[in-house]
Design brief:
Blueprint (H helix, E strand, L loop, with lengths): L1 H17 L3 H20 L7 H26 L7 H27 L8 H27 L5 H20 L9 H8 L4 H28 L7 H23 L6 H19 L1 H11 L1 H6 L4 H27 L10 H11 L11 H20 L4 H26 L1
Length: 405
């Protein structure tokens, strides 16, 4: 009897361990190890609140695209134009402020269009609207024209980059309105940041308890209580550490707050809505999804509109942060976003991926850039190392799928 009980306890323990997402844990652990190594190599300069603030703010620009790219890749598609589209959308926002809106204000007599929050809102809407429109056009080609996404978005990348060069004529567009600059340069006050951190911790606890009770109510398997508590506690510690370090400098950067809000929104969409389930179903088995009644074309169109919108947000924030729109803005952003998604656990064959994982992947890519810059490493080494990281992540993904099969 004792032997049987021991076997049952062992099996229960193995089932508990099986409920742990080891890949996600490994990614987070790899990030922490990388931070420790860079802190040692830079004599502690890497982990200073000032540098971490810059790291999060710089990484957020690519992370916006990565949020949308998760949905594209999870649906079994790809987008090679997101970086060029971000640069074009940012230039559109800059032109709206510098040329179009002042001219419109002079003609209509609505002087609020020339500067201030109204001009800022219009400029952002121009950038996001451009992203949605051009992303939707590419989606039509892919979904209804049956042209491979690789070809459509590769062509789109060339078109958008040429369009951007034509708009700027190789000349920087500046300066931006001070209100618009706050999107990329401002900080949330420490008091508000602390309050938001406390709210986030409460929400983590409430969501964990509610999710556990809901699963039990419907007869689904749940993690052991100790594991649930450990995960919720770990997430709460990360939130408090983040808020504390940001408050030690100037507060949480506004771009980071925007990123967290949009990431939370799209995490809810991908995990709790019908559209999100369709995305993974299409990427997992497109024929099965079609036979189950899912409108493949319509949903692929929506996915490309989403990534276009996120490219528009990225372009607007980049222009606000730099206070200028340049002809090479957004260069290689799409490659960094794809790398962030793959590192974060999104499978290139579709059907699998998470937005939190992509955010961690984007943070790893930004960490490499930031750490190498602190150590005065030449830029070509940064590209080599990021390429090696991406290739390794794909290798792990391929072997993980083989092991599951």
């Amino acid at each position: 009897m004792k032997i049987e009980h021991a076997k049952l306890d062992k099996k229960a323990g193995l089932r508990s361990l099986a409920k742990i997402d080891f890949r996600s844990s490994t990614i987070v652990l790899a990030l922490l190890v990388l931070w420790v190594i860079l802190s040692v190599l830079t004599d502690g300069a890497f982990l200073t609140p000032r540098n971490l603030s810059n790291l999060f703010r710089q990484g957020s620009v690519v992370a916006f695209i990565a949020v949308g790219m998760v949905m594209v890749i999870a649906a079994g598609q790809i987008d090679l134009s997101a970086g060029s589209l971000a640069g074009l959308a940012g230039a559109m926002a800059a032109l709206a402020q510098v040329r179009w809106l002042p001219a419109l204000a002079e003609q209509t007599g609505i002087h609020a269009l020339a500067s201030g929050w109204l001009a800022t809102i219009v400029a952002v809407l121009v950038a996001v609207g451009m992203g949605i429109l051009l992303g939707g056009i590419q989606g039509v080609w892919v979904a209804y024209g049956q042209v491979p996404a690789f070809i459509v978005t590769l062509g789109g990348s060339l078109i958008f980059r040429g369009w951007l060069l034509g708009l700027t004529r190789g000349v920087n567009i500046a300066p931006m309105d001070p209100k618009f600059q706050q999107l990329g340069q401002a900080y949330v006050s420490p008091a508000l940041g602390t309050w938001l951190g406390a709210v986030a911790v409460v929400l983590i606890v409430v969501f964990t308890v509610h999710s556990r009770m809901n699963k039990k109510r419907h007869g689904f398997d749940v993690r052991p209580l100790w594991l649930e508590a450990m995960i919720a506690g770990g997430m709460s510690v990360i939130v408090l550490w983040f808020v504390s370090n940001m408050n030690r400098f100037r507060g949480i950067p506004v771009p980071v707050m925007m990123l967290l809000a949009l990431a939370g929104l799209f995490t809810f969409i991908t995990t709790r809505t019908q559209f999100g389930r369709y995305v993974y179903a299409i990427g997992g088995n497109i024929e099965a999804a079609r036979l189950s009644g899912i409108n493949i074309r319509r949903n692929i169109l929506k996915i490309f509109m989403v990534v276009g919108a996120m490219a528009g947000v990225s372009g607007a924030v980049l222009t606000a942060r730099l206070n200028v729109a340049t002809a090479n803005a957004g260069a290689q952003f799409e490659l960094n976003a794809i790398a962030a998604c793959v590192i974060g656990g999104t499978s290139l064959v579709g059907g699998e991926g998470s937005i939190p994982g992509a955010l961690v992947g984007a943070l790893i890519m930004a960490t490499v850039d930031n750490g190498m810059s602190l150590m005065n490493v030449e830029s070509f080494w940064q590209q080599i190392i990021k390429g090696m990281i991406l290739a390794t992540a794909v290798l792990i993904d391929v072997n993980t799928r083989k092991a599951r099969a």
